[in-house]
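Supplementary Methods. Inverse-folding protocol.

Structures were first reduced to a discrete structure-token string of length 363. This string, shown here, constituted the complete conditioning input.
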């Protein structure tokens, strides 16, 4: 659902019947719960932040005791949302809940180091708009036509009879803005716009949201963006771009690792670029972030590293230094540009190493 991508029911406001049934099941379970844990994937994006905080706000308005957990702080642009200052980054080993709701995680391995064991979760609810082979929840609410999980949260609120407040509306709006790229991506449906209209009617100020999410950047991030845009390489055919950032680059810009998020989109925005890669140094290796306009799959690039990805986005960590990883990415791009099949895996990370580095992946 991230990136440009194939339109998903953009001409209709209708919600699939199976999704409505699942939303109702979630509503019944949450009605019965008093203590609720809400979380999303680690290294949260705007959809995780917005949908988590929207659901938490709604449940608190319904008199529930809600804990919002994420192993790491929310990213700049979303850390001001109502309730964001109350999120916790760890959970007690004996913490127990009547219900646990996981949003936008895509993979249970991305829930964080303190994700409770099954006997402490209560009713386990999995809410997502990404495909997963075996949904892990007691209740699984998966709607592949939703532009963002914020849409699904709105459906649950409607099923519970909880009206939109200004707080919950702001959070859902942030979720929508994040995963539709400011209502620009192919998943921006009539349904997403209809919900946005409801949110504005509930008190959302579109300019205030835009200013706080997109136009309140730290100076260090802006300088790092400049470094990215002046140092990238373009493939011979012009369809692919690679930028490399080291810790030294971050230090010189006065930037922090969270400032890297979203920079790759500026490379993808260059005319003629089909896939952009941002290769950056992390502890113990190098992370690769890929974004596509949808005509060339990021999964083909990830596959060459023994990793998985989606058509429009992929991210993985390799236990090698940035220069070598960037060279390997360029080699894959050259192969794809020449019209040959993606090369075989040159050096696949061991399962043990992949488990140890998976937490470093982005959404």
């Amino acid at each position: 659902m991230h990136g440009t991508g194939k339109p998903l029911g953009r001409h209709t406001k209708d919600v699939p019947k199976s999704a409505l049934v699942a939303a109702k099941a979630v509503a019944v379970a949450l009605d019965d719960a008093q203590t609720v844990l809400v979380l999303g994937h680690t290294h949260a994006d705007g959809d995780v932040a917005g949908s988590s905080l929207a659901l938490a706000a709604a449940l608190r308005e319904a008199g529930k005791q809600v804990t919002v957990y994420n192993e790491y702080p929310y990213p700049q642009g979303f850390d001001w949302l109502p309730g964001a200052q109350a999120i916790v980054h760890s959970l007690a080993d004996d913490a127990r809940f009547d219900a646990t709701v996981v949003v936008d995680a895509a993979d249970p391995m991305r829930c964080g180091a303190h994700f409770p064991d099954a006997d402490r979760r209560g009713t386990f609810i999995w809410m997502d708009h990404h495909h997963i082979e075996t949904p892990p929840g007691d209740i699984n609410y998966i709607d592949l036509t939703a532009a963002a999980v914020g849409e699904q949260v709105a459906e649950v609120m409607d099923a519970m009879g909880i009206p939109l407040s200004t707080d919950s509306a702001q959070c859902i709006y942030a979720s929508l803005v994040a995963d539709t790229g400011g209502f620009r991506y192919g998943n921006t449906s009539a349904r997403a716009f209809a919900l946005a209209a409801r949110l504005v009617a509930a008190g959302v100020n579109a300019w205030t949201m835009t200013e706080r999410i997109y136009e309140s950047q730290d100076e260090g991030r802006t300088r790092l963006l400049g470094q990215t845009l002046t140092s990238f390489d373009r493939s011979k055919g012009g369809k692919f771009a690679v930028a490399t950032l080291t810790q030294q680059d971050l230090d010189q810009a006065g930037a922090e690792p969270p400032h890297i998020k979203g920079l790759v989109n500026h490379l993808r925005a260059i005319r003629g670029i089909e896939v952009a890669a941002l290769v950056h140094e992390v502890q113990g290796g190098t992370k690769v972030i890929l974004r596509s306009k949808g005509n060339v799959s990021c999964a083909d690039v990830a596959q060459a590293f023994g990793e998985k990805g989606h058509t429009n986005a992929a991210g993985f960590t390799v236990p090698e230094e940035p220069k070598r990883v960037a060279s390997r990415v360029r080699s894959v791009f050259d192969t794809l540009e020449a019209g040959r099949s993606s090369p075989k895996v040159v050096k696949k990370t061991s399962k043990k190493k992949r488990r140890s580095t998976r937490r470093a992946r982005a959404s």
